């Protein structure tokens, strides 16, 4: 164990719905908790794939959008103020001689805990990046793969390159903020777009260029000035301050085998207590494999609380196997 790094009872890897509920439950079991998420946002697949979709199969909630569910889960997780670390991909997990774990992220940061709960899902989903010269020069300044702060585009000329409804949605979002919005699609239609969205696009001021592709970026010091596009009608250069691209997502699997874990079809094999084959490492949610496993949010909750109860027992074998929230919060 390294003296100068704070030792937590539990480190949760992954801030999807499993990680968020697990963080809340750790607090309920009076375990000091750090949650490490590779992305800049919490919510995992629910945030990335179903933010606006209605979810109907969670007990006690007749219907809720993905975004609203994640918002409520963040509020619930915040009850016990866990430490949350963003933008760190956990690369290595080492079990120390004293039984504690040291985790290292790709940026070199180290973390320590008595136990680890894997809530990694299958891994992370990164945006597919366009094959453009000098792409890296513009990334982070004027080339973007998501809209994290719409106001940064206020009064700017924005080009969106996408053949998916995600790009269409971005265009409609930025229409009222940016000075001008171009939507460049290398196909003739938008994948997964609803009729209502296409109607809104038609009625908007967004300039749509179908069967057109971004060819080159022009600018200085990472700031765009012009974008070259190629279409059936030939090449043209368009003034643009920012380019946003969405061409699907690429899965980066979590390195379970490197962490010494037994897997089954790419997921971590667990027993009924959510123990992995490494003592002190537990798993929950879409990361896990066991007979009868279902990939559902409700299952993630049960697995998360079981993993926390197991971690509690691992740290303190005399601790009760379970507790009631009605009793805990009456105190
Ligand atoms: C299209 C679609 C529709 C669905 N509809 C429903 C539905 O109607 N009802 C339902 O119950 N379920 C539904 N699901 C399933 C549900 O979304 C998942 O079961 C649930 O989101 C899994 O949550 P999770 O937290 O286990 O994993 P994820 O949501 O995948 O979260 C894992 C998190 O861990 C992070 N991570 C991974 N590896 C690392 C690492 N090494 N370091 C740091 N961070 C890491 C990732 O960045 C990610 O944020 C649907 C899924 C999809 C794709």
Automatic annotation (TrEMBL):
Pfam families registered for this protein in UniProt: Pyr_redox_2
Amino acids binding FAD: 18, 37, 45, 90, 125, 286
InterPro entries associated with the record: FAD/NAD-bd_sf, FAD/NAD-binding_dom, Fd--NADP_Rdtase_type_2, Ferredoxin-NADP_redctase_2
Co-factor: note: Binds 1 FAD per subunit.
Segments forming domain FAD/NAD(P)-binding: 8-299
Keywords associated with the record: FAD, Flavoprotein, NADP, Oxidoreductase
Cofactor(s) of this protein: FAD
Catalytic activity: 2 reduced [2Fe-2S]-[ferredoxin] + NADP(+) + H(+) = 2 oxidized [2Fe-2S]-[ferredoxin] + NADPH
Source organism superkingdom: Bacteria
Gene Ontology molecular function terms on file: ferredoxin-NADP+ reductase activity; flavin adenine dinucleotide binding; NADP binding
Keyword Oxidoreductase: yes
EC number: 1.18.1.2
Family: Belongs to the ferredoxin--NADP reductase type 2 family.
Subunit structure: Homodimer.
Protein name: Ferredoxin--NADP reductase
Protein's organism: Salirhabdus euzebyi
């Amino acid at each position: 164990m390294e003296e100068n790094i704070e030792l937590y009872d539990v480190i949760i890897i992954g801030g999807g719905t499993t990680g968020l509920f697990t963080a809340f439950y750790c607090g309920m079991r009076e375990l000091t908790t750090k949650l490490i998420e590779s992305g800049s946002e919490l919510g995992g697949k629910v945030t990335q794939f179903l933010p606006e979709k209605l979810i109907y199969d969670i007990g006690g909630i007749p219907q809720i959008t993905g975004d609203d569910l994640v918002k409520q889960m963040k509020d619930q997780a915040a009850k016990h103020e866990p430490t949350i670390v963003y933008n760190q991909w956990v690369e290595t997990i080492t079990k120390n001689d004293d039984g504690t774990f040291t985790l290292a992220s790709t940026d070199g940061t180290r973390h320590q805990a008595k136990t680890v709960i894997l809530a990694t899902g299958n891994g992370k989903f990164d945006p597919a990046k366009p094959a453009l010269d000098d792409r890296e020069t513009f990334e982070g300044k004027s080339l973007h793969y998501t809209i994290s702060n719409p106001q940064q585009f206020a009064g700017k000329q924005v080009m969106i390159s996408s053949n998916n409804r995600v790009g269409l949605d971005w265009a409609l979002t930025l229409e009222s903020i940016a000075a001008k919005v171009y939507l460049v699609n290398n196909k003739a239609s938008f994948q997964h777009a609803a009729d209502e969205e296409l109607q809104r696009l038609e009625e908007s001021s967004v300039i749509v260029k179908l069967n057109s592709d971004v060819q080159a970026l022009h600018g200085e010091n990472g700031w765009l000035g012009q974008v070259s596009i190629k279409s059936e009608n030939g090449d043209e250069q368009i003034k643009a301050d920012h380019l946003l691209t969405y061409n699907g997502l690429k899965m980066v699997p979590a390195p379970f085998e490197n962490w010494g874990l037994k897997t089954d079809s790419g997921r971590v094999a667990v027993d009924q207590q959510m123990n992995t084959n490494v003592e002190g490492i537990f798993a929950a949610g879409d990361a896990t494999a066991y007979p009868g496993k279902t990939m559902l949010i409700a299952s993630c909750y049960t697995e998360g609380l079981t993993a926390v109860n197991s971690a509690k027992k691992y740290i303190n074998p005399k601790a009760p196997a379970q507790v009631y929230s009605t009793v805990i919060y009456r105190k």
